[in-house]
Amino acid sequence: MECVFGLVGNDFVVVAADTSAVHSILVHKSNEDKIMVLDSHKLIAASGEPGDRVQFTEYIQKNVALYQFRNGIPLTTSAAANFTRGELATALRKNPYFVNILLAGYDKETGPSLYYIDYIASLHKVEKGAFGYGSYFSLSMMDRHFHSGMSVEEAIDLVDKCIMEIRSRLVVAPPNFVIKIVDKDGAREYAWRQSVEDTQAPPASVH
Q1: I need a labelling partner for 76 at 20 to 30 A (CA). Which of 11, 38, 155, 199 fits?
Q2: Contact between residue 51 and residue 85 where contact means Cβ atoms under 8 Å apart
């Protein structure tokens, strides 16, 4: 029931993901951040098995940091996407990760870019992409409203349209979403869209 989607605008990429941690019919939490800041100018949004998602994205994050530490220069977004795809392809023949990834980044030379990487190690550079059951609705909304060179305001408005469509159409729609953006100023959290907040149980009374 996961929903991860993103799009490329004018000198930025915006990525959104649901924040539900679900197993079978249980919702364990509704504030799970599925978009990791890979480095100063990259984001990696992932969906799939929770253990695979966390382990694999952390593995990629640490290897990208190790490359920069060893060589003194960061990987480009394209290089990071190809490295990620290579690691998924290697694991596919041994102990596969069931994880789908949208990798967003900004490079000084080439500007913003978004890469679609699925669990069988297919890699595509795209202007818009989505994973999960929410993709049925977010992709159709983006097909209708997306255009090249969108402003931040237009992109966020389209993201909100996608979220509203998912909430109203998907029978078990996730209530909360996190939105992150990457541009020339770096990768950062932009906003949360919450309809349910995690509440803590009151302390047990002592008799």
Answers
A1: 155
A2: no
Of how many residues is the chain composed? Answer: 207
Q: For residue 136, give the DSSP letter.
A: H
For 55, the token pair is 């382990």
Query: Chain-centre distance of CA 40, in angstroms?
Result: 16
The whole-model pTM stands at 0.89
Q: 173 with 30: CB under 8 angstroms?
A: no
- Residue 42, helix vs strand vs coil: strand
Instruction: Please list, residue by residue across 144-161, b when 16 or more beta carbons sit within 10 angstroms of its beta carbon and e when fewer do.
Output: eebeeebeeebbbebbeb
Tokens of 177: 């979403």
**CA–CA distance from 70 to each of 36, 64, 88, 145 (Å)?**
22, 10, 23, 43
Paired strand residues for 39:
42
pLDDT in tens, 149-202: 899 999 999 999 999 999 998 888 888 899 999 999 999 988 888 776 765 555
- Residue 124 CA to chain centroid, in angstroms? 15
Gap between the Cα atoms of 126 and 202, Å rounded: 47
Cα 101 to Cα 72, 104, 130: the distances in Å are 26, 10, 9
